[in-house]
Amino acid sequence: MVAIDLTWLQRLRERREKEGAGQPQRLHPPAMVQEVLSFLRVAEVRRGVFVDMTVGTGGHALAILQANPRVEVIGIDRDRASLEVAAERLTEFADRVTLIHGDMRDIRRLLAQVGVERVDGCLIDPGMSLWQLDSGRGFSVLDDAPLDMRFDPSAQVTAQTLLQTLSASELERLFEQAGERRVDAKRIAQAIVETRRKGGIPTARALAELVAQVKGVRGGRIHPATKVFMALRMAVNEELDALRTGIWEGAQVLKRGGRFVVLTYQSLEDRLVKETFRQLSQPRTERDEGRGTRDEGKRAVLRILTKHPVTPSRQERQSNPRARSCKLRAAERVK
């Protein structure tokens, strides 16, 4: 097993020295840690491998490594800079960690590269971290930075690309899918199209101010542009497709009895996870043969462990407000 490549740490430290101390690094506490460890049965594994398919800055990976000294963790993420933070955070366990820059949709190929075929558990914790919010890539409504929003800076499409190329109707559908009221989604989309004709929207803050002006809302606990930003970020990073395909592909690398845990933070993601788990838990019929499903053979691949999603305890909701909307679903490989 390939351990942490210490050049991750060297690059991170060199960049910090070059850029100076700057803004303090914010690392949010991972959500529902005890529930994740319990459903993955980390403590029960005598010797095994778990894959954090969206390792981010390494919060859940750290908890897994601390829970059982006999397990190893493979962490996959599209954000190379986040992996550098994870490498530093997990240095103490470097001999039991492999960090891979890549897309969880490619999990089978990525695991093959490090000589792993089957694993004891998979975890997906999608979305954006506090660290990324501070990264100056246009994720924050307060950013005086270009509208980038890419997890992987090598990807071609940015949020600015979408704002410049999508029609008003396409933007409207995007915002409405993310939860904007239809009337607001339409007005925001029209305002964006008008503004780009006059020179465009140069920064994240400029977009946030435009949305607030259109909606006529200022102040409040949640910024009026939050859903617009979420819609653009999810579209740029193909988050729904990555989540769906990641579950399909991750299910194929689980050992028999291996567990799959997925955390979500909004209803759109939760419905997708529920439906994907459902599909993987049902046997294929003759009529399914031409649908291009990804499971191998006609038997069910997964057994669902959570009839209803598990939510954070009252204590966690109070101590970790970012986890308030979190929902956990879990399944087990049955063949």
Protein traits:
single chain; 335 residues; alpha/beta; Rossmann fold; DNA polymerase, domain 1; 2 domains; seven-stranded mixed β-sheet; 7 strands; 42% helix
Walkthrough of the structure:
Strand 2 (71-77), helix 4 and strand 3 form a beta-alpha-beta unit. Residues 286-292 have low confidence and may be disordered. 41% of the residues are buried. By secondary structure, the chain is of the alpha/beta class. The radius of gyration is 21 Å and the shape is globular. The chain has 14 helices and 7 strands. The chain folds into 2 domains: 7-131 and 239-333, 3-Layer(aba) Sandwich (Rossmann fold); 156-236, DNA polymerase, domain 1, CATH 1.10.150. It has a 7-stranded mixed β-sheet, sandwiched between helices.
| C-alpha-based Rg, rounded | 21 Å
- Order of the strands making up the biggest sheet: 3-2-1-4-5-7-6
Measure the end-to-end span: 25 Å
Helix-strand topology string: HHEHEHEHEHHHHHHHEHEHE
CATH homologous superfamily title of the largest domain: Vaccinia Virus protein VP39
Sketch the major β-sheet.
Answer: 7 strands, mixed
Tally of alpha and pi helices: 14
* Strand count: 7
Low-confidence stretches: 286-292
Instruction: State the domain count.
Output: 2
Q: What name does CATH use for the topology of the largest domain? A: Rossmann fold
Structural class: alpha/beta
Helix content: 40-55%
CATH class of the largest domain: Alpha Beta
The share of residues in extended strands comes to 5-15%
Overall 3D geometry? globular
CATH architecture of the largest domain: 3-Layer(aba) Sandwich
What's the average pLDDT?
Answer: 89
